[in-house]
Amino acid sequence: MATVPMIEYDDASDEVRAIYDDLREVRKTDFINNFWKALANQPGILKRIWAGIKEVFSEGEIDPVTKEMIYIAVSVANNCDYCIHSHTSNAFNKGMTVGQYEELLALIGMAHQTNGLASGMKVPIDEVYLK
Amino acid sequence: MATVPMIEYDDASDEVRAIYDDLREVRKTDFINNFWKALANQPGILKRIWAGIKEVFSEGEIDPVTKEMIYIAVSVANNCDYCIHSHTSNAFNKGMTVGQYEELLALIGMAHQTNGLASGMKVPIDEVYLK
Amino acid sequence: MATVPMIEYDDASDEVRAIYDDLREVRKTDFINNFWKALANQPGILKRIWAGIKEVFSEGEIDPVTKEMIYIAVSVANNCDYCIHSHTSNAFNKGMTVGQYEELLALIGMAHQTNGLASGMKVPIDEVYLK
Amino acid sequence: MATVPMIEYDDASDEVRAIYDDLREVRKTDFINNFWKALANQPGILKRIWAGIKEVFSEGEIDPVTKEMIYIAVSVANNCDYCIHSHTSNAFNKGMTVGQYEELLALIGMAHQTNGLASGMKVPIDEVYLK
Amino acid sequence: MATVPMIEYDDASDEVRAIYDDLREVRKTDFINNFWKALANQPGILKRIWAGIKEVFSEGEIDPVTKEMIYIAVSVANNCDYCIHSHTSNAFNKGMTVGQYEELLALIGMAHQTNGLASGMKVPIDEVYLK
Amino acid sequence: MATVPMIEYDDASDEVRAIYDDLREVRKTDFINNFWKALANQPGILKRIWAGIKEVFSEGEIDPVTKEMIYIAVSVANNCDYCIHSHTSNAFNKGMTVGQYEELLALIGMAHQTNGLASGMKVPIDEVYLK
User: C54, C58, C85, D27: which has the highest count of C-beta atoms within 10 A?
Assistant: First the structure.
């Protein structure tokens, strides 16, 4: 198949441009990464996904760097190459320290290990966790 | 197979008891959850895993609640029932707010979705992420 | 390791050639894609896998394009690069429309998201689904 | 943790009830399954997920039964118990035949197998798929 | 959906009975586990899967216990509850020692961890592995 | 992000060099593969992971080739490119035969298939496996 074509700003429909404009404003950067240019082939999905991303990354009780670290954790477990690259980059841009990154990797590694062990031994769930 | 037998403190070897004692002291609770009682059938693994968990949860640049949230994120992606239950419980015990939990779930959900879309469209990795 | 060597038709044993011949006849194309050339290093597996593929893609109650879309869905969830490329290509060759592909991606994305949420919240299965 | 509490219609806020009402109308049934009752603890996510589900299951180029089969395929690959149960139930309710279900299972099984083999042998992607 | 009905020997068609008979003979036991009774709803799949299982577990260069351990390793990584139970049971029945089981769990745990770390850091593949 | 920098022996700290020295001695080769050079950016993780790997690959009841085959099985299921390459290479270096590799691939493929089928049909676990 090859990958879907990347829709550049200048070639985009008005509908797509409006989302690109919003994306640039919210993120305070002109850079539009390939994920969005690929999604732009399906304006309906592009719109819905951007709305979701905007919501989950909007100001809340979890700080922006932590949100990116959580995103990295899921992306590593799902082994999504693109997502690991983009969110690790985002995390550093938003201020993740080298020390935090090291601890994040260590946590991800241990979690994979204990996930495998708990599933492999079929450990029964403690009563206290079910209350 | 059924699950492996749970090794209770009173039935444990000295080697296992020493780890249970350390676990109780570090965690400041007498409660020993089934994961450790199952691992105790293999004292060598028990020792190594506890050392790893102690290290990744020791004081560092990522705060304790965030560490548990990252652990939950990996456990959900790996779909480890036991781990989701125990770490969600831990996170609330360590102070995760209902608002943080809501944002965590929303992030996990969106990350799964964009992981699937980026993998499905085979989005090429932007040059800027490879530098 | 590098990948296993690709077994070309001219270098293949009679046993492998017979399968290549059948594959070409069933698929009505001379093209043999790398998956089969790699499997041909293990003629026993090649034979069994081709028999399975021939069976699941034989005429039945699910139409050919839908079969390829289901294959894409599994391949994305398992994140198999080769399989996503080959089955997306197959699907378009068999008549998948751009509109269907868009809807397929949207479904795959949402399914990943709700899979993550249902697993993360440990939603109890409704009685009605267990009857 | 135990699972999150199920929010019943009578105990729901106006915001949640409005979504429950829409869900009942769109699906033409009074039944609200646990997934929604669990999400209702987080009205923001509930609203966004319902909007997404409504969109991907709205009338389009892929018929309703096929959409459910694609959803089942992803849910099996992600091993989401709840999702497998609910979407298999939905698929039968929407008219999936026993023959289609049999073919679906056969496809899912073969796809898992060839996914594993293609990943295990690191099969290089054919040039023709990259055009 | 609930699970599919279990097809008992006495209620099985001649086609299914012939496979049950072969299964009992090859395995030298009258016991037919639920996996086969579930597959028997789809005799075509039952036949193909049994042929595949018979082939991969037939005498070869990997001994029977090792084959079961490899099967357990895959089943844990895919988190298939049924498969972990049945193949761990099979492995012990075929002679897996407690010491081997301990080493198997340790390997599975470490492999999950290093898989997560290698994917998370996007470690470039060494030239020597690509030759 | 690009990948993390590879830490070469000559540029390594004394702490990292000590581990590289041990790794070379244990493995009886001067070659240090990229996984360790990447981990060396986080000496704490490097130390812990190397200790774990050394332990699980130390002499025991499972022979060295089988250990590598089990590692490959997990790595394929988790779809870790780096790990599949490195452990397949290791397995051949330690004496895995072409026949064993063929049987390994066949087992991995069948296990993925039956994992998918057992999960998809929600097969109930036999009583005998729960004892």
Answer: C85
Contact in structure between D83 and C111 (CB atoms under 8 Å): yes
E20, F123, D76, E120: CA torsion to nearest 10: -100
Evaluate whether D35 touches C123 at the Cβ level (below 8 Å): yes
In a mutagenesis test of the D interface, which of F117, F122, F123, F125 is the best target, namely the one with the most D β-carbons within 10 Å? F117
The candidate with the shortest Cα–Cα distance to F84, out of F100, F64, F95, F68, is: F68
Q: Does A69 touch chain B (CB under 8 A)?
A: yes
Q: How many structural domains compose chain E?
A: 2
Can you give the pTM of this predicted structure?
0.95
Same domain, A77 and A37: no
The confidence score (pLDDT) of residue E24 equals 97
**Are F91 and F69 a contacting pair, CB within 8 Å?**
yes
Residue range(s) defining the domain that contains residue F83: 60-123
Same domain membership, residue F54 and residue F6: yes
**Strand residues in A2-114 grouped as ranges (E):** none
Structure tokens that stand for D28 in this block: 């033409």
Per-residue pLDDT tens listing for chain E (131 residues): 556 899 999 999 999 999 999 999 999 999 999 999 999 999 999 999 999 999 999 999 999 999 999 999 999 999 999 999 999 999 999 999 999 999 999 999 999 999 999 999 999 999 999 87
Pair of tokens at residue D68:
């459910």
> Is A42 close to C106, i.e. CB distance below 8 A?
yes
Task: Note whether A111 and A72 are same-domain residues.
Answer: yes
Q: Is residue C131 part of a domain?
A: no
Res B2 pLDDT > 60? no
C59 at the E interface (CB within 8 A)? no
Under a CB-based contact definition with an 8 Å cutoff, are residues F8 and F37 in contact?
yes
Is E130 contained in some domain? no
In a domain, E131, yes or no: no
Render pLDDT for B61-95 as a digit per residue (tens, 0 to 9): 999 999 999 999 999 999 999 999 999 999 999 99
Domain match, F51 and F70 both: no
